[in-house]
Amino acid sequence: MTTGLRVAIMSDETGWHTSRLKKAFRARGVEARCVDLADCRIDTTLRPFGLAIPGFGETLPDAVFVRGIAGGTFEQVTLRLGILHALRECGVPVYNDARAIERSVDKSMTSFLLNLHGVPTPATWASESAAFAQRVLMREAAGGHRTVLKPLFGSQGKGLRRLGANRRDGSLAPLPSLRASGQVAYLQRYVESAVENRQPGFDWRVLVIGDRASAAMKRVGGKGWIHNFAQGAACEAAPLEPKLADIAVRASRALGLDYAGVDLIPGDAGALVLEVNGVAAWRGLQSVTQFDIAAALVDDLLDRKLMARVLTPLKTGDDPNH
């Protein structure tokens, strides 16, 4: 049923992930081509769509898998996301679509949506006011809590700073300059758990595909209290316990993602969601599981996302996602 389909893998670089995806698409009889969003353009002289996707001539791909979006200026990133929005408006299934990616990339919106949908997550504050952020820092310190200052946009554990009272003399350092974080303070209560006080600490990464938690791992150790794989943490297989799986699925659903890498940390009352990655890498997770992640992602795109479009043809004025 899928023979003859053509799919664009949106990525600014080719390598392990894209080769795995291409192999999985080939196994389903689908031609997959890597495309850099920076090479795509809106061109209203082109009929009928006004979009140019390299390698697809005057047509559009049957579906799009978003593997990576390169950084750039605000205008460049806006245009690249705009291309994904435009593809969706043309009825092309985009996995994950631009709206969901925008929600997951913006940590403040992620925290807002998790909280709105009742998904357990640490207390979080996001504001442009340094004075407000300083008051939060003081109030949290008075309550015996430390806080983590994070870049609003960021990944791989980069740029995180743990703040709070000095455990030797109780002094509280002032809030660092917000210049490096774009004059925005995104603060999250640091989770002091029983597990954290043992060596080494860890967090979980759960991969959600469709509406199902598919695989999990522990990221153990790393750079001090930061347990990202990119910061030197070791990947260990972890059982997909029902409560952990349920929270991860709820987190992905809250952001409207087709697939997601959900980062969770153990707390005194259970797991808490720290972040939700809408363009999730899975090389570390694949190293500790026999589950073929690329094949599962491709199957979900073709059998659920794409077939839903085939079974419900787009009508003029319809929302392509419903």
TrEMBL record:
Domain of life: Bacteria
Keyword set includes Ribonucleoprotein: no
Domain annotation ATP-grasp: ranges: 111-302
Entry's Gene Ontology cellular component terms: cytoplasm
Transmembrane stretches, start-end: none
InterPro entries xrefs: ATP-grasp, ATP-grasp_RimK-type, Rimk_N, Rp_bS6_RimK/Lys_biosynth_LsyX
Protein's name in the database: Ribosomal protein S6 modification protein
Species in which this protein is naturally found: Caballeronia sordidicola
Gene that this polypeptide is encoded by: rimK
